[in-house]
Amino acid sequence: MLDKLKLKSKQLLESREVNSVLGTVHGTGNRIRPMFIREIKDIDNLIINESPSINLAAYIAQADNLKKGKVLIIASMNELKAIKQLSDENRINDEQLRVIGVIGKEGIIEFNKLNEVSDYIQSTQSLPSAHDNSLEQISSMTQDQRWQYWKQVMEGCIRCYACRSACPLCYCERCAVEINQPQWVSVASHTKGNFEWHIMRAIHLAGRCVGCQSCSNACPINLPIHLLNRAVNKETDERFGKTQSTQSSTHCMSSFSANDFEDFIK
Amino acid sequence: METKDFFILKSQIENLFISLKESGKKIFAPSLNDNILDFKFIDSFSEIALGGSITVKSPKSVVFPRVEKVLEFTKEKDDIVILDDDYKVIPEVIVWGSRPCDAKGLLILDKVFNWEPKDEKFNIRKDRSTIISFSCNSCDEYCFCTSVGGAPGDPTGSDLLFTFIEPKEGYLVEVLTEKGLEVITQNKSCFSELDVELSKEHYLASVSATNLDPQLIRKNAENHFEGDIWAEQVQRCIGCGVCAFVCPICSCFDIQDEVHGHTGIRLRCWDTCSSSLFTLHTSNHNPRDKQSKRWRQRIMHKFSYMPERFEAIGCTGCGRCSRACPVDMNLKEHLLNLQEV
Predict the structure, then answer these.
(1) B170-175 and B160-165: which strand pairing?
(2) ipTM of the complex
(3) Within a 13 Å sphere around the CA of B94, how many CA atoms are in the beta-carbon half?
(4) Most buried of A30, A58, B65, B197, CB within 10 angstroms?
(5) pLDDT at residue A130, rounded to an integer
(6) Is the Cβ–Cβ distance between B278 and B220 less than 8 Å?
(7) Is any Cβ of chain B less than 8 angstroms from the Cβ of A27?
(8) Residues of A numbered 46-105 whose beta carbons fall under 8 angstroms of chain B's beta carbons: which are they?
(9) Residue A110: pLDDT over 90
(10) Is residue A200 exposed (0-12), middle (13-18) or buried (19+ Cβ within 10 Å)?
């Protein structure tokens, strides 16, 4: 499978169809390192990422990374899900990106167009929260226990924004926390400010988060902040129907229906 | 200062801890929480986790807190009343279990915060901190202290340096300052004077030598200021702030005012030059508008500007930036790469 991947990548790079290949190579120790490969000879360094940590789609969501030319992204399931969402949001288009999927036992899938990625995801993905028991432990806590749990998490956060930088869907050129007229959210990393930051980010990702855990993997102190996104996605699922990223192209944050509930308006 | 070395048995370490705690000092030491090793204020000896890996963050927050109140202000009719923060509440702290690379970092912070104007609060915190470092008897592939003028048993910057001497089941204690000597004299029963020479070299970690040449790095960085190398190296960098925040030397900060009605507080918060906003002017011009320029700045600040201003390299080779980096930038590799340009 790896040989086929290398061959395909070399072909695309050689024919100048793409001018870089975004994949993973061996890093320090036994770490996986993301890499933009621009020379044919370096394609041989490509490895298949068995334990994804940082979502490579975070790179293609940044406009600067697409400016040098078309990118071929070697995409595991997490990347494919993010690519679908980015494509639905018109953040990326076919001129900028080629995709080769690496799907566990299925092997290599070459996608010619981004809507093929969307179709693939919609046909194969169940709801992220359906078979997910990561929220079980938290849901079984009392409200006070939950508060203490998150308070401890928020006390540790140092506001390095690795979570934001590693997220493929956090691509705002000016993040809400970077606006000071008005200062929506505290910049300082005290507990209250950290609650504000993480809750705000979770709300901005409602129905958009693809559950890749790139955020908590990037966190230098392993804070389980991805659980906030899982919880929010569960809510949007229940209240707005199947508008989650992998299920449709109609997303709760970017669409309106006359049937949307309004019982919070008194 | 010239003073004899001392010795403390491993079995006496807990007594020393208890004595220091009972004297009213707060102890800041490495502790393991959910598999993450980091410095925190310790209540009981059993929380301390020494030996093995290095902490995720350095102990710099004892002198440079992550969030620090600078002053408060209140609007009273047409007047603004400014209240300085109460310095009396800054506690006496023992940093217990810093590494030689951490202690060295504190010295560089000292140069930064005492460059006119002198930072009063920093100096008060520094005066109220006692640094008890433990020499490294192990290291990993990220460490490169010996390539930037450091060493696993370097006492520079510490008040006391403990080195574990296994066959003696205790620690060689080197006293570096008056503050360190005071710890000994106030806890005499824990220590014994050493009459014989006890060499620590055999019990220190073997940090792999590299070809790193800070002089050459500086020269190449300066000569290739406009070069392509920065853009090449920065490709996988995602522009977060992890490297700056875990670094024992990074000290850039942001000032934030938090106002509620007629009162407010001014806070100093950790900041990072890797942020896209870092040099954004109110005119909207940004001299460091690309990550490549911010990467160049990071390297040059540590390997060119600090040597120029302070005659000191702005890196202690602790490797924390590289361990914590979400995308495995690996500073040592990039520095070696810069040497070959």
Answers:
(1) antiparallel
(2) 0.93
(3) 25
(4) A58
(5) 45
(6) no
(7) yes
(8) 53-54, 58-59, 64
(9) yes
(10) middle
Q: Do A36 and B141 touch (CB under 8 A)?
A: no
User: How many C-beta atoms lie closer than 10 Å to residue B4's C-beta?
Assistant: 11
Burial of B201 (0-12, 13-18, 19+ CB in 10 A): exposed
pLDDT-derived band at A129, boundaries 50, 70, 90: very low
A159·B246 Cβ contact <8 A: no
CA atoms within 13 A on the CB side of A249: 14
Write out residues 216-245 of A within 8 Å (CB-CB) of B.
Answer: 217-218, 220-222
Q: What is the pLDDT of residue A134?
A: 77
Chain A and chain B share a number of CB contacts under 8 A equal to: 92
| Model confidence, pTM | 0.94
| Shortest CA distance from A25: residue in chain B | B328
Q: Which helix (H) or strand (E) holds B270?
A: strand B263-270
Say if residue A37's pLDDT is above 80. Answer: yes
Q: What is the mean pLDDT of residues B137-143?
A: 94
Give the angle B227-B229-B231 at the CA atoms, nearest 5°: 100
User: What residue has token string 């005119």?
Assistant: B283
Q: Kindly state the tokens that stand for B209.
A: 């030598």
The first and second tokens of residue B205, run together, are 């970690």
Closest by CA position to A102, among listed A50, A54, A65, A172: A50
- All residues of chain A having their beta carbon less than 8 Å from the beta carbon of residue B324 are 220
Measured CA to CA, the distance from residue A6 to residue B199 in angstroms comes to: 54
CA atoms of B218 and B299, how far apart (whole Å): 9
Contact residues, chain B, for A182 at CB < 8 Å: none
Cβ–Cβ gap A217/B326 under 8 Å: yes
Give chain A's mean pLDDT. 90
Residues of A in contact with B242 (CB under 8 A): 160, 162, 218, 220
For A122, A146, A238, B41, B246, the CA distances from A234, given in Å and listed in that order, are 18, 17, 6, 37, 34
B192-221 pLDDT per residue, tens: 998 788 889 999 999 998 999 999 999 999
Residue for token digits 């460059």?
B115
